[in-house]
């Protein structure tokens, strides 16, 4: 499906949901539940309304860091032998103009087995795929198939710098150097539209801000939450 058509479809779905939400609230009021009850019903729906967001954050996880940090709790499919994953998609997160975006919206059914299996090459954990749908995809204004098609398109939008496509040894990196490498590899990406996250020792994720049409955009609110370590490790791909 062409990206423009997919984006237009998502906007139409969001418009229908906003209209349905307004009609539902009006119906409650008409039944005579009283003016004090209406804000209690309306406020949570407005906060977590599917399709009500400004932009996306594409979160790319450095899989070797996840596998090393999680130990026995790590996902066996993602971290098992013969699984040489490097950067994988953690999620595509709808974001509000300021602050966090909506989460855990009541929208659509769970993704089908076919849909889950169809994205395991970029999100190599069925549990992760389902969790990302429940928390973030349900708020996108799209159904599961549309949402994960957008996830794939967002991942395809970002080029991984050659130095980070496959490491065969531990590497110590400066977070700002990783950001600079992504900026250099992706024309149009600015240094205030990307953030590297880390734990105390390892690089964990690269987060890139995208418009609803999947163009690069600035996001100082995301950039400010980036890693503050002078240097971090990137474990090798195994």
UniProtKB/TrEMBL annotation:
- Which SUPFAM superfamilies does the UniProt record give? Ribonuclease Rh-like (SSF55895)
**What protein does this entry describe?**
Ribonuclease T2
For this protein, the record's Gene3D superfamilies field holds: Ribonuclease T2-like
Q: Which InterPro entries match?
A: RNase_T2-like, RNase_T2-like_sf, RNase_T2_His_AS_1, RNase_T2_His_AS_2, RNase_T2_prok
UniProt lineage: Bacteria, Pseudomonadati, Pseudomonadota, Alphaproteobacteria, Hyphomicrobiales
Q: Which GO terms describe its molecular function?
A: ribonuclease T2 activity; RNA binding
UniProt similarity note: Belongs to the RNase T2 family.
Q: Which GO terms describe its biological process?
A: RNA catabolic process
């Amino acid at each position: 499906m062409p990206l423009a058509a997919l984006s237009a479809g998502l906007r139409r779905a969001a418009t229908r949901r906003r209209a349905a939400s307004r009609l539902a609230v009006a119906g409650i009021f008409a039944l005579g539940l009283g003016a004090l009850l209406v804000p209690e019903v309306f406020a949570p729906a407005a906060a977590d309304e599917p399709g009500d967001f400004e932009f996306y954050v594409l979160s790319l996880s450095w899989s070797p860091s996840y596998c090393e940090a999680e130990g026995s709790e790590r996902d066996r499919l993602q971290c098992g032998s013969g699984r040489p994953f490097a950067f994988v998609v953690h999620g595509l997160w709808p974001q509000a103009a300021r602050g966090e975006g909506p989460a855990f919206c009541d929208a659509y059914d769970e993704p089908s087995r076919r849909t889950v299996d169809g994205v395991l090459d970029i999100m190599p954990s069925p549990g992760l795929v389902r969790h990302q749908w429940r928390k973030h995809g349900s708020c996108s204004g799209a159904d599961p198939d549309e949402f994960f098609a957008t996830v794939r398109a967002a991942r395809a939008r970002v080029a991984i710098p050659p130095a980070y496509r496959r490491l065969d040894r531990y590497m110590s990196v400066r977070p700002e150097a990783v950001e600079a490498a992504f900026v250099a590899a992706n024309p149009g990406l600015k240094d205030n539209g990307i953030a590297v996250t880390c734990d105390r020792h390892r690089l964990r994720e690269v987060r890139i801000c995208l418009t609803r049409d999947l163009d690069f955009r600035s996001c100082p609110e995301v950039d400010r939450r980036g890693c503050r370590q002078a240097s971090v490790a990137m474990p090798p791909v195994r």
